[in-house]
Amino acid sequence: MLRQLFFVISIAVVALANSQRKLSLDFPTPLLGNTSPGSVWPQPESHVSTAETFPVAVESFMFTYASKSNKCDLVYEAFKRYGAIIINSAGDQKLRFRPLTTPMLTGLEVNLMAPCEDYPSLDMDESYALDINSMAVATLTAKSVWGILRGMESFSQLLWESDSGQIVANKTNIIDKPRYAHRGILLDTSRHYQPVNVILENIDGMAYNKINVFHWHIVDDQSFPYVSSVYPDLSAKGAYNPITHIYTIEDVAEVIEYARLRGIRVVPEFDTPGHSTSMGKGQPGLLTECYTGSSPNGNYGPINPTVNTTYTFIQNLFTEVKSSFKDAYIHLGGDEVSFSCWQSNPAINNWMKSHNMTGDYKKLEQVYIQQVLDISAAIGYSYIVWQEVVDNGVKVKADTVVEVWINNHPDNELAKVTALGYRALLAAPWYLDYISTGEDWKRYYSYEPSNFNGTAEQKKLLIGGEACLWGEYVDGSNVTPRLWPRASAVAERLWSPETVNDVDAATPRLHQHRCRMVQRGIPAEPLHPGYCKHEWRN
Amino acid sequence: MGCRDFFAVCLLLVGAVHATGKLGYPAPLLGETSPGSVWPQPHTVTASPQLYTIDIQAFRFEYLQTSQRCHVADEAFKRYQLLISRSGIKAKFHDKYSTSVISVLPVMITGPCEDMPSLDMKEGYILDVGSNPLLNASSVWGVLRGLETFSQMIWEDPSGQAVANKTHIIDEPRYAHRGLLLDTARHFLPVNVILENLEAMAYNKFNVFHWHIVDAQSFPYVSTVYPNLHLKGSYSSLNLVYTPEMIAQVIEFARLRGIRVVPEFDTPGHTYSWGLGQPGLLTTCYTGGKPNGDVGPINPTVNSSYTFIKNLFTEVRGQFKDKYIHLGGDEVPFDCWKSNPNITTWMAAHNMSGDYAKLEQVYIQQVIDITGAIGFSYIVWQEVIDNGVKAKDDTVVEVWINNHPEVEMAKVTALGYRTILAAPWYLEELTVGEDWKKYYSYEPTNFNGTAQQKALVIGGEACLWGEYVDATNISPRLWPRASAVAERLWSPETVNDVDAATPRLHQHRCRMVQRGIPAEPLHPSYCVFDWMNRK
């Protein structure tokens, strides 16, 4: 049997197929079925495999612990999930073709070399090592449960369906770890409510792509679906519908638990002082009254930063949020704060005068942000803010994480933010709500986050990135195919080494991965003309 | 709440909310923005605030004594009874409007029953909702359109009752051909996805499914005469093909909804997949005096090409019941023909050396002759005319190139051809935001031409080419964007105000969602029944 490197062969075959047909075709070459069977997305740091394959005993496949392994509920739950995925990967043909002569791969032995952990965190260790060789049982070793989760995902992707319908795996050795610690997806449940089952479906999609943060932009101007037990009027008056379009405490707990089991953090965003119109509906006095001339004009602006009731409200609300959302981080927003309403309000101007900041609305914003940061920190929260907070010259705490979203030379912004010593997240190139005709994933894939002017130390302050799907034009009817596989391009950029950046090499793997998601029940949209061996049936 | 009384009033209120614009963010579309409104808007609606309770649980349609009784209408009665009973209204039935409960809609068909929808079908109807409700039409197709309208008029009043306003509607379409193109060659679309979209087409009064069934990438059509076409040309001959039974199912499903199925077999270009199962059909391309392994368009210089086309189209004609076939004819590259010495020799022998547009014409005219002899009428893409090919007078020309389509419309109609407009409505082209407004605002008759020329515009088509859509995403990408085109093609020219249309379109989008079509949102919003919301 051939022992050459499998991935070299497969890429060469695809390239050959392309070049054979490209000569004449005045139309894009379709992606036909299994374009890169057994490939892993995002690509591991080191993946060595050979053409030798082992049939997999799909129906009787066993996950076991190595003798010295720690045993955790979280790993046990993953055994169940991936057992089901492996059974389903066999498609329609799982009961046929049971070879009895060749050595079968009958199980995966897991060796967790560290104690159990309950919640994923920014500091979690996601590295793992995976080996499939002539032994009947493959092995997966990691220093944390999170590494085990990532390794099981990779293992499940190594299995593929041969032409005869047999599920097989190549002889493989993988040593893997992520490039960035924070690999997020933002979903916005305010512009449109996203049903809980849709959120869960996309958390599955995140796990299949080794995304580890669900940035939950849970409220905004348009609606306030978060049910607060301290301030029930917020959703009662601020949700689109206070019965059907809300997230109860139980819903939030369900999302967090579902994500936790998949090693995904849930970071809620409560964006203030702007983007808060819906908050004002259930909390009179919270927002600034806008004036025309000397009388209120009926409109409301950002949160009123000059009254103590504001800070009491924030403290009570965030204390509740802290106990429902388990993550160490909250996203405080802080983007797009409009000053015009503050400028119009005489009480605010008086307050500013008495605090020696007449006319300096950035200073007023800073007063607000700093108090909110203090409150958040006192509650025990670490925090992320959008870039404007820093752009506006607000002095934030040294441990603040700054998220860069404005797509006008984000490289300059990263240079600036990291020069100030802040940790940074990059979102600007990955606003997936900006749709266009064709294969935009290539643009997302090709953006290199560390391409900014800065020292090695500055580059280290870049802790990751996020793909953002703002909710203006997506809801349960279309959010999932719009997100996948476009977000997969970002997932590989954030997980795989910087050198894994060839769009042409990625194409057959991404098509394979998209088809894998479809087979697993995620309606990931097509990249390009072609088909999957197992197409979506609704 | 104030909006619930009367939808004309409601429109004004919603308009007012939009106009304030002081929010600093787009005002969301909240739930029922235009309850009981009809999409596409009927020709004439006279509505009053007076409400009639609709007994949605026991609702039925009955023929008037003197009416024709038609199978297509019988089937529609069943569908719409079900749709009305499942309208999502809790329907606490109490006698609030006891003197004005409607539990039967009498139906009158004055003309003879017809079995197959056609370009000439009559889709007009008169609908009265009031103390003497009646749906009156001269054909069964008008009944179908009227039933759809009636089903859209039912809404839930604040007490939870299903009601409809007292209304008199006189309606008929502006254009006879209101089509939707789906492409099953770049990606295969499972039959259930096609049926789902035929259902949505009926909800939008589309009446033509333009089935771009094969193309360069794949040949999923199962021909019994030439089985190698799908065996070698489809993505997978096991499961990514359309068998005769599946095609019959699609046609029957469409027929019952008054939707024609017009297949497109695009030649002589766009045929790479055909060549895989029919050796010798395509032109062999040459480099330096030798075949280079590539193939080009269908070879127009050999008789075997025409025998093949005749046999294939005869089979197609027997299967697809519509009078029309779409012959394609777009994007024919000449370079492969130019490279081939046999073709060059043939052209010299026929006194057309170097005139490849002439060669194309030879091909197209033969195909048109074959098609006509089989009994098909035909539609072609605009290039056939642009390239100077002389097509027959009764050819329908579809304008698709979005570079001054109004100039093309003027040209094609000046030549006396009937025309279908598709250019402004290529739904696979994506931009951020509310592109439906662009589709909605395009006026098809805005071109220089006489009244006679304008009368040659028989309709239009929304096209969703298949490069980037398959079963995972096609329905939300199509709806409600195609609905904008549906209203443009059905409603009077004067119904063209985007702001007035917005609350109605949101309502219609929510109605489609409630009926099981995953139509995507227009704008920040919610529907009373949002997609996949289990609450």
Q: How widely separated are the two ends of chain B?
A: 23 Å
CATH superfamily of the largest domain in chain B: Glycosidases
User: How many helices of chain B does DSSP assign?
Assistant: 18
Poorly predicted regions of chain B: 1-22
Describe the structure.
- The complex is a heterodimer of chains A (about 550) and B (about 525).
- Chain A has helices at about 5-20, 75-90, 145-160, 195-210, 235-240, 250-260, 275-280, 310-325, 340-345, 345-355, 360-380, 390, 410-420, 440-445, 455-460, 480-485, 485-495, 505-520, and strands spanning about 30, 45-55, 60-65, 105-110, 130, 135-140, 160, 165-175, 180-190, 215, 265-270, 285-290, 295-305, 330-335, 380-385, 400-405, 425, 460-470, 530.
- Chain A has about 550 residues and is of the alpha/beta class.
- In chain A, the strands form 4 sheets. Chain A has an 8-stranded parallel barrel, surrounded by 5 helices. In chain A, strands 2, 3, 4, 5, 6, 7 and 8 form a 7-stranded mixed β-sheet that branches.
- The longest helix of chain A has 19 residues, at about 360-380.
- The radius of gyration of chain A is 25 Å and the shape is elongated.
- The two termini of chain A are about 40 Å apart.
- Mean pLDDT of chain A is about 90; it is low at about 1-25.
- With about 525 residues, chain B is α/β, with parallel strands linked by helices.
- Chain B has 2 domains: about 35-170, Chitobiase/beta-hexosaminidase domain 2-like (Chitobiase, domain 2, 2-Layer Sandwich); about 175-495, Glycosidases (TIM Barrel, Alpha-Beta Barrel).
- Helices cover about 35% and strands about 20% of the residues of chain B.
- In chain B, the strands form 4 sheets. In chain B, strands 2, 3, 4, 5, 6, 7, 8 and 9 form an 8-stranded mixed β-sheet that branches.
- Chain B starts with 6 loop residues before the first helix and ends in a 9-residue tail after the last strand.
- Chains A and B meet through helix 4, strand 13 and strand 19 of A and helix 4, strand 14 and strand 20 of B.
- Chain B: Pfam families: Glyco_hydro_20 (PF00728), Glycohydro_20b2 (PF14845).
- Chain B: Its EC number is 3.2.1.52.
